């Protein structure tokens, strides 16, 4: 038996490849399915099943394209109602993959159809559990997402179901089982996931707050729901795509890979109202970019921030990328359901600048320059766009906190009559914030290079007390 975790860092997502005796099962695949097909072909194996732990909210799964290209059967857990042909399994139903077995454990809570798959090897030994969003390393799945699709599924109801699922289906299992979750640290599907992407169930029973044996259901609900922030706006749209079906990635690529000259690019932007998305480095964006374009760098947590900041998956998008990275950008947009890219700038920003068209820049300042500036009595205000939890942990003593996730709700808080400073942890998020503010006509901002990490190195005074001017 071969069981491999295929981890994609930018989404904090784990798919799984199970192979035995020439047969393969894929669990929770990404949108681009060719790598799974190639892997099976290299091993002279065929993909028999695509197992889905639930209808995902944070990405569009590749189950439909895998079925179309390989003939594999799609399997969901009990109560799932997909809008296409699939097997809706019964609780404890067993599927054979070569000489291995996959046992369905219905574990509702994150969603009602959520299921865990118990992997039993060729010798009949229980090896591990593929848990989806039911159980993470150090955390469990948030129970407030389904309500955005079905109003009756309140977070309180789902939290109660999750409590029962963990205690009745997961905790009685053997301590030596390996836990294989769908996500790791950085995913918005939980609150406090570990950076580790696998663990033994026994260790999770000792260390995961949600698996404490003496915890009552009400205590579980309280701890689970405390501190949840609103989910990204694209989550319900991805859920519906996964339930109802979606356009093949091959078709998305065909319509999106359209190289446009600067003139055609500008005309397309004006005629369609497309959002211009610049995915280069934050340093390059600061030096020059198309006016009103939004920066979300391809080398950061790209898909997550696209979903958080753009929200509408149907939004037409025009891409500015470094030459050779256009296909990668379109693919990574499609992972989170943004299938309406309508072209890219041929030759990138260099071509735009050479054409003599107008461009904008972002003013920046080094931490040493910031230190000198705030030593003066009448200095400009500072806005920290990190998460509230990061800010509470430590921040510049005189800073305000406006988390990037909610910046569109607080545009009026930024000064209109004087400059102000922006920073995040390392410079990525603050440049996203700068691009959004500039696209809204707020140009009197100055980005701090290197973010909070560089600020600390410079010795600027910080505190771990919550600033009274925190914006929520």
From TrEMBL:
It holds the Pfam family Rhodanese. Keywords: Hydrolase, Metal-binding. One of its GO terms (molecular function) is metal ion binding. Residues 270-361, 376-464 form the Rhodanese domain. It comes from the Bacteria. GO terms for biological process: glutathione metabolic process; hydrogen sulfide metabolic process. This is MBL fold metallo-hydrolase. InterPro entries: Metallo-B-lactamas (IPR001279), Mito_Persulfide_Diox (IPR051682), POD-like_MBL-fold (IPR044528), Rhodanese-like_dom (IPR001763), Rhodanese-like_dom_sf (IPR036873), RibonucZ/Hydroxyglut_hydro (IPR036866). The lineage of its organism: Bacteria, Pseudomonadati, Bacteroidota, Flavobacteriia, Flavobacteriales.
């Amino acid at each position: 038996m071969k069981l491999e975790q295929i981890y994609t860092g930018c989404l904090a997502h784990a798919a799984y490849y199970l192979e035995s005796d020439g047969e393969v099962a894929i669990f929770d695949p990404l949108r681009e399915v060719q790598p799974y097909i190639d892997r099976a072909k290299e091993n002279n194996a065929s993909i028999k099943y695509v197992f889905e732990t639930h209808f995902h909210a944070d990405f569009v799964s590749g189950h439909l394209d895998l079925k179309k290209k390989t003939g594999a059967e799609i399997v969901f857990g009990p109560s799932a109602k997909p809008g296409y042909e699939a097997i809706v399994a019964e609780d404890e139903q067993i599927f054979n993959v070569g000489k291995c077995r996959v046992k369905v454990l219905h574990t509702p809570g994150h969603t009602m159809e959520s299921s865990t798959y118990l992997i039993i090897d060729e010798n009949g030994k229980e090896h591990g559990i593929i848990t989806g969003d039911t159980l993470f390393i150090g955390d469990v799945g948030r129970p407030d997402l389904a309500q955005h699709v079905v109003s009756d599924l309140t977070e309180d109801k789902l939290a109660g179901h999750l409590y029962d699922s963990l205690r009745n289906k997961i905790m009685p299992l053997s301590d030596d089982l390996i836990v294989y979750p769908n996500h790791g640290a950085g995913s918005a599907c939980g609150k406090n996931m570990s950076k580790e992407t696998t663990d033994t169930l026994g260790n999770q029973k000792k260390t995961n707050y949600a698996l404490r044996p003496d915890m009552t259901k009400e205590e579980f609900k309280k701890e689970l729901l405390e501190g949840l922030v609103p989910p990204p706006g694209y989550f319900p749209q991805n859920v519906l795509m996964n339930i109802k079906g979606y356009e093949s990635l091959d078709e998305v690529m065909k319509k999106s890979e359209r190289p446009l000259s600067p003139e055609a690019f500008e005309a397309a932007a004006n005629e369609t109202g497309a959002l211009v998305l610049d995915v280069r480095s934050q340093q390059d964006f600061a030096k020059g970019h198309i006016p009103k374009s939004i920066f979300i760098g391809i080398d950061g947590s790209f898909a997550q921030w696209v979903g958080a900041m753009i929200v509408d998956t149907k939004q037409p998008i025009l891409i500015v990328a470094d030459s050779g990275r256009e296909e990668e950008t379109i693919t990574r947009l499609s992972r989170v359901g943004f299938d309406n890219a309508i072209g890219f700038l041929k030759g990138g920003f260099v071509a735009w600048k050479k054409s003599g068209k107008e461009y904008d820049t972002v003013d920046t300042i080094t931490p040493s320059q910031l230190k000198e500036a705030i030593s003066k009595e009448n200095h400009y205000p500072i806005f920290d766009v990190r998460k509230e939890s990061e800010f509470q942990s430590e921040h510049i003593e005189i800073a305000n906190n406006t988390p990037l996730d909610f910046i569109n709700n607080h545009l009026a808080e930024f000064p209109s009559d004087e400059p102000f400073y922006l920073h995040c942890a390392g410079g990525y998020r603050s440049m996203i914030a700068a691009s959004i503010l500039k696209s809204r006509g707020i140009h009197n901002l100055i980005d701090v290079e290197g973010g909070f990490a560089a600020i600390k190195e410079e010795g600027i005074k910080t505190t771990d007390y919550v600033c009274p001017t925190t914006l929520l």
